[in-house]
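Our consortium's second objective concerns turning raw sequence data into structural hypotheses that experimental partners can test. To show how far this objective has progressed, the report includes one record in full. It was chosen at random from the queue rather than selected for favorable results. The single chain below, 177 residues long, was entered without modification.
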Amino acid sequence: MDVDFKGDTLDNMKKLAEEAGLTPEGLIEVVMQQFVDNKGSRVYTGRWSGGKETKDGVKGFRYVPQWPFRPGFKEAQGEEVKKWRSGEKKYRPHPTGEWPFYPRLKEGDIEHEYWSSKKMYHQSFINDRKGRIVTLMDGDKYDAFLDTVKSRKGNFWTTAIEAAVIEAIDDWMAKEE
């Protein structure tokens, strides 16, 4: 297989590989394995009227990669790691999941771009096609809400919170009619 990368693509690939402690070839293998092996990855193709035609009549074409719906994990055996490793001891740490939705976080508390991007909200709408109502509350109001749910429902598990919110919405909609 012969692949040729030039210009910005090659420069950006080298930066990403260096960040992960991989060779460019290792980065290509990891990314392509995750792209082709995960649900939702596609490459759509179609005509492109703006493309230049070659002398022998081949017209321009448009390629649209659709990335997988969720991140993949590549667990590499030692032989793969040996083949891909760049020799650098650095690596890019993955985001932790211990704090992303804690109600007392302020703007700037989350530094890793994975958690700080707004894509998570949009992806949840797309993945399961269900309607969502997201309400963000400051810590004190959140605590008061959970206390109220616990006193009325006996606990503040997800099902109790959902039931309380649905009751409140139903009551509000009944008043509006």
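The partners drew two points from this record. The chain has two domains: 1-92, 139-176. The beta strands are 42-47, 61-66. Both points have been shared with the crystallography group to help prioritize constructs.
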